[in-house]
Specification:
Length: 208
């Protein structure tokens, strides 16, 4: 595990200090094998201090994942906020934002979709994940409403979209999008294929 400079913690918001330390460790090490004891040491507090805010390490990990989903949702919403974007352009922008988030935060992204971020036992984590997924659902609804997307089951379009974008993100952070396998620009190409299958009158749609 990589070392960070210890800065003794004296006052302020201990909960956020612990979260910031854990996020920094996750980013540096690209895994979450650290212990609460190590998080406390690097935050500069006693080994017992984290338990005032987190019952155990798993509770801390779920909070990190919740923060990740909030940040991911913000990135996606910002990316597709331009008023001049077509639905297709919004989809590409949101998908690229998701993949970029994963590339820049690989450890956090893996945690968000791991079994250690159990959404069934943490309502706040569940809500954060569903709010982010809701961005996709609302975009698909908009596309079906204005005739951009084919009028098929929303759940099928959501599953196909999520699988494609998440799969590309995981391949990207694992350095598996090799040019000799998938060409020089695999992400835009894959999104084009997905959208061509989802869109009505593809030849008449404005492509990004």
């Amino acid at each position: 595990m990589s070392e960070t400079t210890n800065r003794p913690y004296h006052h302020g918001d201990l909960r956020h200090a612990l979260i910031d330390t854990a996020l920094a460790m996750l980013a540096a090490d690209q895994n979450w094998t650290f212990t609460l004891r190590e998080v406390a040491r690097r935050t500069g507090v006693s080994h017992a201090a984290p338990y005032k805010h987190f019952r155990d390490k798993e509770a801390l990990l779920r909070e990190l994942a919740r923060i990740g989903f909030v940040q991911l949702g913000q990135s996606m919403a910002h990316a597709m906020s331009a008023d001049t974007f077509s639905v297709r352009e919004k989809f590409v922008a949101a998908a690229q934002a998701c993949i970029d988030f994963a590339i820049h935060n690989p450890g956090l992204y893996r945690l968000m979709f791991s079994s250690d971020a159990d959404k069934t036992i943490d309502s706040q984590l569940h809500d954060a994940a569903m709010n982010t997924f809701g961005l996709l659902l609302r975009l698909l609804e908009e596309g079906q409403r204005d005739g951009s997307f084919r009028p098929i089951a929303m759940s099928a379009q959501a599953a196909a979209s999520w699988a494609q974008v998440h799969g590309l993100a995981m391949l990207a952070i694992n350095h598996q999008l090799l040019e000799e396998k998938v060409g020089a620009a695999p992400i835009p190409a894959a999104l084009e294929v997905l959208l061509d299958g989802m869109c009505c009158g593809v030849s008449n749609q404005q492509k990004p």
